[in-house]
Design goal:
By secondary structure, the protein is α+β, with helices and mostly antiparallel strands. Helix content is about 50%, strand content about 5%. The protein is built from 21 helices and seven strands. The chain has helices at about 5-10, 20-35, 40-55, 75-85, 105-115, 120-145, 155-170, 175-185, 190-195, 205-220, 230-235, 240, 265-280, 295, 305-310, 315-325, 340-345, 355-360, 395-405, 410-425, 430-440; strands at about 65, 70-75, 285-290, 350-355, 365-375, 380, 385. The strands form two sheets. Strands 3, 4, 5, 6 and 7 form a five-stranded mixed sheet that branches. Helix 7 (about 155-170) packs parallel to helix 10 and helix 8 runs antiparallel to helix 10.
Amino acid sequence: MTYDEIAAFALDPLDIPEEAVEMAATLLIDTLGVGAGAVDLAPARIARDHAVRFMAAGGPEDAAPLLFDGRSASIPGASFALATQIDNLDAHDGYNPTKGHIGCAVVPALCAFAEHLPDLSARDALIALVMSYELSARAAITLHATVSDYHTSGAWNALGVAGLGCRLRGMDAGQLRHALGIAEYHGPRSQMMREIANPTMLHDGSGMGALVGAMAVLMAEDGFEGAPAITVEAPEAAVHWADLGQTWTTTENYIKPYPICRWAHAALDALGDLIDMHKLTADDIAGIQVNTFAQSAALFPGMPETTSQAQYSLGFALAVRLIHGRIGPEHVSGAGLRDAAVAAVLPKITITEDPRHSDRFPMGRWSDVTVTHVDGRVLSSGDVHARGGPEAPMPLSEVEAKFHAMSGGLSEHRKAAIWDMRARMLRPETRFGDLLGLLRGSVGSA
């Protein structure tokens, strides 16, 4: 596929399958629920304060509100703040072949750019969102296929942000080419496994991806020139872009049931199935053997001291599931990090890499769990794939329940109104601003 064809896909009105538009609406609201739930996390507060102090807009025409906060910053600053907020509550969507996440960067950028488009229809916003998911996915797959390091999502979702911003601001193919080049050149090519080994607030780099992508749009609009993006235009990239506009990867994104790294989810579901089937409690269990893929086995061991460590955990996540029956934001922050009952379970858990599960990564996230009962029985889950994606989809009722659980401090009325927008956005008369009006005030406001 030529650059001109890619540009036409990104900038021109598209005939997108209704399934993809509907999925975009669900992904959007799910992501916003995670953003609301992450408001009180330390990295979210720091990012918002930083954006207000150091990323302020020069005038109202360049400003955007910090969602669920009430203050404002520049368009790139607001994109950065919300993306960092979402990225640090690890419950946002992802796409298996990218080994990462798209929505946590493109959703904040959509909301920030759309503030200056009062006539933008909700459907057109969703179409732009689908386009940005499709660009991001192919940039990710190309990057992973052409470099040796495993880079964080910010390295490539910045290009999806650039495409989104250019479309919304009515820019041309030449400006888009520079924006993509700027976004790729300055995107954070940070090493994912480095963060896995030492979990911090850096997380998956998506805050910087959103910042760089939004800046790239505005710089290209002002005439700043950038080198062509090699993950888009290099000859070796062509094979990864050949199905653009034919295969709709947006519909294949997963929605996470837990605010924990996706690599832990298969084991969580496997253990959860055994707990539910056999009515197990911690006192019933003598030992838990987890067989999983290499990346999952490399997750943080032991009792975490920080939210970042807790979300890049496996043993801790399993222990929380066993003790509490669920995993919510409260379990990976604050007092949840000092839960004595959870800590007592950890010595019972053994985690081992299984090559057959590793061979199926990244296209699949498989694990199996064996529980040894105190009475000597051995209970096995068999191979289990993580729920939430096309392999094992969550019913919409569970996605809705997750939204209400994650969006914590919002009033019940506000939660219901935001969730209702998932369906309303598909109607031709709905403006995207109807949703934005529900997001601008602080979490505690009506």
